[in-house]
Design a protein that fits this description.
The strands form three sheets. Strands 2-1-3-4-5 form a five-stranded parallel beta sheet, sandwiched between helices. Strand 1, helix 1 and strand 2 form a beta-alpha-beta unit. It has helices at residues 10-22, 33-42, 59-69, 83-91, 104-118, 149-160, 168-175, 185-197; strands at 2-6, 26-30, 47-51, 74-78, 96-99, 123-126, 129-132, 137-140, 143-145, 203-206, 210-213. It is an alpha/beta fold and 220 residues long. Helix 1 (10-22) crosses helix 5 (104-118) and helix 6 crosses helix 8. The protein is built from eight helices and eleven strands. The chain has two domains: 2-118, 3-Layer(aba) Sandwich (Rossmann fold); 123-217, Arc Repressor Mutant, subunit A. The modification 4-aspartylphosphate is found at residue 51.
């Protein structure tokens, strides 16, 4: 998933980003409300981790903006602990509310629990590549591309985990879980077919390890 972490404390953003990226997620960081709004308007996010107190605006105002314009789940972070503060945060549209100090793993777990609702009717976009999950459709440069069911599943697996490298065995287990004894080279053939139909630059070979999405195309 693509996660925006908004907090004026650099250490907090760095630690949270590290946890999410180790989980295979792609992170964006903002230390002000203004920079957060810029990312929100430009990037198709799946999750926002939002500090209540920012130097230039209240996190509640950003939360209201998100809920008025986008369907992105918001986890609010705050040092305020009164019930009135929590109620106010939920009234502003926050999907979850976490009081500082917290363990980063808690935030990751809470985000993953909120994720299914954020992925309904979701379109994953990388450069000129669009994956329409519900329709299982691929569009490149506004042209529909025909992939086989297994080719689509592999491309979706990589796209949903842009930071993670998947070995051939990982892909076999994810896509063909009913038959773990399949020839691993079938994965190479699927990747070759996807590259031919879509574009080779979207899938990166990590020699000796496997395959991943090429991050260089994410913000093209």
């Amino acid at each position: 998933m693509k996660v925006l972490i908004v907090d004026d404390e650099v250490k907090i953003t760095e630690v949270l980003a590290s946890y999410f990226e180790n989980n295979g997620d792609y992170t964006y960081i903002a230390h002000t409300g203004e920079s957060a709004i810029q990312v929100i308007d430009q990037v198709p996010l799946d999750m926002i981790i939002l500090d209540l107190m920012l130097p230039d605006m209240d996190g509640e105002d950003i939360c209201q903006y998100v809920k008025s314009n986008y369907g992105i789940p918001v986890i609010m972070l705050t040092a305020k602990i009164t019930i009135d503060d929590k109620v106010n945060g939920f009234e502003m549209g926050a999907d979850d509310y976490v009081v500082k100090p917290f363990h980063p793993k808690e935030i990751l777990i809470r985000a993953e629990r909120l994720l299914p609702s954020s992925h309904k009717n979701h379109i994953i976009i990388f450069g000129q590549l669009e994956l329409h999950k519900d329709e299982r459709k691929v569009v490149v440069n506004q042209q529909s591309i025909q992939l086989t069911p297994h080719e689509f599943s592999i491309l979706l697996l990589l796209a949903e985990n842009p930071k993670k490298v998947f070995s051939r065995d990982d892909i076999i287990q994810k896509i063909y879980s009913f038959d773990s004894d399949m020839n691993l080279r079938i994965v190479d053939q699927h990747i070759k077919n996807i590259r031919k139909k879509v574009k080779e630059e979207y899938i990166q070979t990590v020699f000796g390890l496997g395959y991943k999405i090429n991050e260089k195309v994410i913000n093209k």
